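Annual report, structural modelling task.

Input specification for the zinc ion complex:
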Amino acid sequence: MSFQGAANQPGGELASPAGDGPPLFRVSQSPGKGMGLFATRDIKAGTVVLREKFTLSVPGKNNGGYSRLDLDAIVKLTLQYNNLSQDTRAELLQLHATPMPHRDADVRNLITAADRHAGVPPMGERAVETCQRIVGVWLTNGFLTSDERTGTCLFLKASRINHSCVANTARYFEKNDPRYITIRATRDIKADEEITLTYADALLPVAERQEKTRRVWHFTCACPACDPNDPAIDSAAHERDIRDLQSLENDPTPGSEASREELSAALERSSRRIELHQKLLSSPAQLATE
Ligand SMILES: [Zn+2]
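The model returned the following structure:
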């Protein structure tokens, strides 16, 4: 793949996943979670719910982490932002940015130092605040694409998808063109149901999932798997399945001296492992074909 600097290619395009039909989702309020994406009709497992090109991108191996924030990233983000349409800019600025005063101060200091070094007049207060907002939105919502050419990308619609430990979609970056994210249903989704993704590892025990969502994304997960009072899922049974799967993870492969009984027992444990994976991740058979 070859593409020029992202600053010349404002993103945010949506590719209709269902031919020319209307989008399968709408953006609406999600109680307790700000905005979210909701299905506009019944969606079958395996359907592409959303395919979207990035709006902002900072190439590199792992620059989504706050510790890697530098002037180069700020300049790249601001240049791309300036090339967006008014509507897209407004949509971007409405995305959530985790309040982080020390991050905002760092952005201000980097800009001020660069202006002083270049001998140009300092940037206006409003422009500095916009830069802080762009960086905050990108750091809060960016997806690490695992391709150095695209690095950490912001997708306007995909960013609206809230987390669940028992999500109904999974996300992919296209190998041939990692500028695009694809969101695919991993199980049937009912009309008006919220579309969800798993940010943390869905196969971790509840305490570890909760710790991770709090530490990295600054919220406490209250999804059906985390809330023991949610009737949608037997969270105790879900937790038992995760523990069972963990105990099977380190299962040794039987050696050449293994008896028939040992091989048979190992096969049974492997089958159980696959079964638990399918149950916990909805539909790994479909994921594997991506
Ligand atoms: Zn959860």
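Residues 93 and 188 are 32 Å apart (CA to CA).
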